[in-house]
Amino acid sequence: MAGKVALLLWAQTLGFASTQTTWIIVEPPWMPAVLWDRVTLTCQGSGTSSATTWYKNGRCWGQQGHDRLTVTENGTYECNRTSTGLSLPVRVLDDWLVLQVPAWPLLEGDTVTLRCRDRQNNLVTWVSFYHEEKQLVELRNGTELTLFPLQLHHSGRFRCRGWLKDREWVVSAPVIVTVHVAAGVGGAVLFLLLLVGVIVAWHRWHCVAARKQQERPPPDPTAPPKGGKVPYIHGVSSKQARWSPDVTVPQDPQETYVELWGSHGRPWEPGDIYGNVL
Question: Which of 25, 76, 100, 228 is the Cys-Cys partner for 30 at CB 3.0 to 4.6 Å?
Fold first, then answer.
């Protein structure tokens, strides 16, 4: 029993209490609670227990300044902490027939047991369970229904109906069940979505880069090499030419000078041909 209460406190602390920072722990951990059980309510939230105020049906109830309350009357209970505000309500019933669900967050994939209880302690027979007014099962002697694995579509309104001696057919008040997505599953799905997004983005970028590479025009063979260098051709023979990268461009960038050597390995004389190539 203590383990269940610890589980409830752990789950609510992790955020299942949503934006509600003040909440009530119910012992025994079943909702709605029933008066014929010895029900204890514990107010949880920031601040000290002296800052706790209890309410029953909207009015101050019991001795203030205590975080624990033993229930002696049916009704709707709330607690307030000055620093964290008002809790969600907790119902305590004294009906002839009550449908109860576990008083902790119900996660997708879990196993949950719904139980149909009567005030006379298991004198009810022919119990039927309903989900959104649709009959799920009818049990001649049993009073519990187990759902496994719990799924999101199990959320909704549940009620039970049974035969009580001397009271004929009795129907319980509806109970709203909410199934939550497990935090681990949601995190894994988010990670996979992010991973797929990164892969798709990288693939598109790669395709665009390859397309631009294909569309880039080929280099101009007539353009001079980078770095301001031009070929300076030495006429060694009519079939050979040698590249000299150490010759810089003359001052006039519009002219390219070519010096041709004579057939005997000497430069041409001033009277020989010496021209400019525009």
Answer: 100
Note the pLDDT tens digit of each residue in 202-225: 567 667 777 767 666 665 555 555
Match 């029933």 to its residue by tokens: 34
Q: Nearest 5°: phi and psi at 209? A: -65, -40
pTM of full prediction above 0.90: no
CA-CA distance, 250 to 230, in Å (whole number)? 9
The amino acid present at 124, given as its one-letter code, is V
Distance CA 172, CA 159 (A): 6
Contact 100/114 with Cβ under 8 angstroms?
yes
On whether the CB atoms of residues 146 and 111 are closer than 8 A, the answer is yes
Q: Do the beta carbons of residue 90 and residue 8 sit within 8 Å?
A: no
Give the burial class of 158: count Cβ atoms within 10 A of its Cβ; 0-12 exposed, 13-18 middle, 19 or more buried: buried
Computed on alpha carbons and rounded to an integer, the radius of gyration of the chain in Å comes to 44
